[in-house]
């Protein structure tokens, strides 16, 4: 493909979707570098359809593409260049999310699996630590405290008519959470998944602080709930839609929730520890074989 002859047209195409389509930073940087250096003729070795359709009305011509950074140029330059060169009217790339590299326990895990902003390493020790300190102590603790409060003899699993209560701090709290939800939605629209998850943790953290400041101490949360997949079951409520503005009324007064379910946290940690030891054993065995061969 004579990309050099399409330089101006590809450059012109790149400017709009990279700005309006929420491209990831490495997608823009790598593509910009190629265009700045000047495009050169490039061989074509395969034909390929790529993209995930957005199942919403009005998005029929939009595609999301999740790819590793080693394939950015094919999707941001070469494939659009083939469309421009043949003057076909097919949908061109609009949203472009590419990941960074992910290593596993010090070794290459995959060339196209990672997070959005930098290379990272996955190991069982850090995974276990994040699960314990971020998920359980933050999000898990928040869910457990609320459920156990409603499971108490005072409420007997029934959500009270919270509209009868008012305090200035409630208004401020709702506004803070509403702003975080709006931020979360914006981050997901921009395919910033890691930032979005961080915002979710901020929501539960503020929830914990709110409960603490209003007299709900840790005596109500001595046990941990099940993983996030069971939260809706415990609340006896389906996943609520994400609102543009949160009014703290996702679960209505009079709704009956289920019992807080305890999880054998020790067993889960032992399972993760076994996986970590197994990985270390495999690496040690491989090293011994390599030494023997040498």
Q: Keyphrases for this structure?
A:
294 residues, three-stranded mixed beta sheet, mainly alpha, extended, single chain, 8 helices
In short:
This protein is mainly alpha-helical and 294 residues long. It has helices at 7-20, 25-37, 72-86, 124-151, 168-189, 193-213, 231-235, 265-293, and strands at 52-53, 63-68, 95-99, 102-104, 107-110, 120-122.
Any overview of this molecule?
It is extended and about 75 Å long. The chain has 294 residues and is mostly helical. Strands 1-2-3 form a 3-stranded mixed sheet. Strands 5-4-6 form a 3-stranded mixed sheet. It contains 8 helices and 6 strands.
Topology:
Blueprint: H1 7-20, H2 25-37, E1 52-53, E2 63-68, H3 72-86, E3 95-99, E4 102-104, E5 107-110, E6 120-122, H4 124-151, H5 168-189, H6 193-213, H7 231-235, H8 265-293
Parallel strand pairs: 2-3, 4-6
Antiparallel strand pairs: 1-2, 4-5
Helix pairs in contact: 1-2, 1-3, 2-3, 4-6, 5-6
């Amino acid at each position: 493909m004579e990309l050099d002859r399409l330089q101006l047209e590809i450059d012109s195409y790149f400017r709009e979707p990279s700005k309006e389509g929420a491209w990831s930073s490495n997608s823009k940087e790598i593509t910009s570098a190629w265009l700045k250096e000047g495009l050169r003729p490039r061989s074509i070795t395969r034909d390929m359809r790529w993209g995930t359709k957005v199942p919403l009305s009005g998005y029929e011509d939009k595609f999301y593409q999740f790819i590793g950074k080693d394939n950015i140029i094919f999707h941001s330059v070469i494939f659009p260049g083939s469309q421009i060169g043949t003057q076909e009217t097919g949908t061109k790339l609009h949203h472009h999310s590419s990941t960074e590299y992910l290593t596993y326990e010090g070794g290459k895990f995959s060339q196209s699996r990672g997070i959005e902003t930098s290379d990272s390493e996955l190991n069982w020790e850090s995974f276990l630590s994040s699960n314990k300190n971020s998920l359980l102590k933050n999000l898990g603790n928040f869910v457990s405290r609320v459920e156990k409060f409603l499971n108490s003899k005072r409420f007997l699993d029934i959500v009270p008519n919270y509209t009868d209560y008012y305090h200035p701090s409630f208004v401020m709290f709702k506004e803070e959470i509403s702003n975080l939800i709006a931020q979360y939605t914006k981050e997901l629209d921009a395919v910033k998944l890691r930032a979005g998850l961080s915002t979710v943790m901020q929501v539960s953290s503020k929830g914990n602080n709110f409960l603490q400041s209003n007299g709900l101490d840790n005596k109500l949360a001595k046990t941990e709930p099940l993983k996030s997949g069971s939260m809706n079951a415990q609340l006896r409520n389906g996943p609520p839609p994400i609102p543009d503005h949160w009014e703290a009324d996702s679960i209505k007064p009079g709704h009956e929730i289920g019992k807080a379910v305890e999880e054998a946290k020790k067993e889960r940690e032992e399972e993760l520890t076994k996986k970590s030891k197994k990985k270390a054993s495999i690496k040690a065995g491989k090293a011994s074989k390599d030494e023997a061969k040498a």
